[in-house]
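Quick one, probably user error.
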């Protein structure tokens, strides 16, 4: 007796995800997302082995010495992803939608500061020693009322004009004109900064985030992949006694030039020629002593050593390619 199993397939160029329908027990392999689907007796379609046991899902990564990513995967090459009209540099295709949405929502953290806002043209937001940057998305909360036209929970963007370590101006759009404020205000205000992947338009220019990942994907925006080339992999979080490290962000440097404050406390030994004196000698029945009339001075100097060049601080490393599942 011979048994034949037939598997349907969706070719590259189609869309990711399960087919609209399968008969009970019927299998379908999707070459776009690399997944296998099966029809169930209740007329639904399920992904076979979606997690665990060697199965990979969107956002999973694997190391490889391959020079070409597997079907349904892209290399973590510091590029961008988006739809076919996005001009994305790593992959511009509809099959990047799931990874786009995952990174859009998952690679973000916030930092907040107490602030004051002037009622002026333009308005100035003062937040002492903030760690924000030009182009960053911010929102405001308050215990009272914000100046007009600012509203709680609305996205604003820091602009370059007037930007400083303690104050900045904001715009209603990325790179737009400074906002003018009017009216009255009350209560205490907080500015919340969003640290996230900076979306780009189809030309590669940085642009603000939209309301949803789906809206940005449909608008042909590019999403940068987290930077990975030449960087070690470290687990996100805060180990005991260590600094909090947020998912998808990067730190570190290959070399470092010490500042004076970073140097180990130390001392210098100096030597100098003996000084000479001239004067008059006086004596009595007990002592003799000199009263100087022309003491000279001596100059003491130290010489520099070392080059001041940056020191290599890279750990011993072996370099792989990393691919991430669409």
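Nope, works fine. Designed sequence:
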């Amino acid at each position: 007796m011979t048994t034949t199993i037939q598997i349907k397939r969706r070719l590259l160029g189609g869309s990711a995800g399960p087919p609209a329908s399968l008969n009970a027990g019927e299998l379908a392999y999707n070459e776009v997302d690399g997944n296998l689907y099966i029809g169930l007796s209740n007329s639904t379609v399920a992904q076979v082995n979606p997690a665990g046991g060697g199965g990979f899902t969107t956002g999973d990564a694997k190391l490889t010495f391959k020079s070409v990513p597997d079907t349904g995967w892209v290399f973590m090459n510091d590029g961008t992803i988006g739809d076919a009209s996005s001009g994305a540099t790593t992959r511009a295709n509809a099959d990047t939608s799931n990874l786009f949405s995952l990174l859009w929502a998952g690679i973000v953290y916030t930092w907040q500061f107490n602030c004051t806002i002037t009622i002026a043209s333009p308005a100035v937001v003062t937040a002492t020693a903030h760690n924000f940057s030009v182009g960053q998305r911010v929102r405001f909360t308050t215990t009272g009322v914000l100046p007009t036209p600012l509203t709680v929970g609305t996205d604003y963007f820091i602009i370059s004009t007037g930007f400083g370590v303690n104050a900045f101006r904001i715009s209603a759009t990325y790179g737009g004109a400074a906002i003018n404020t009017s009216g009255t205000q009350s209560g205490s205000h907080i500015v919340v900064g969003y640290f996230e992947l900076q979306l780009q338009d189809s030309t590669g220019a940085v642009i603000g985030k939209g309301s949803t990942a789906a809206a940005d994907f449909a608008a042909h925006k590019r999403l940068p992949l987290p930077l990975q080339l030449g960087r070690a992999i470290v687990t996100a979080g805060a180990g005991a006694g260590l600094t909090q490290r947020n998912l998808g962000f990067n730190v570190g440097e290959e070399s470092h030039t010490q500042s004076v404050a970073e140097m180990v406390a130390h001392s210098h030994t100096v030597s100098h020629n003996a000084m000479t004196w001239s004067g008059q000698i006086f004596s009595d029945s007990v002592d003799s002593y000199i009263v100087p009339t022309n003491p000279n001075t001596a100059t003491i100097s130290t010489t520099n050593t070392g080059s001041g060049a940056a020191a290599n601080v890279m750990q011993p490393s072996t370099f792989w390619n990393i691919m991430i599942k669409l």
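The first strand starts at residue 7 and ends at 10.
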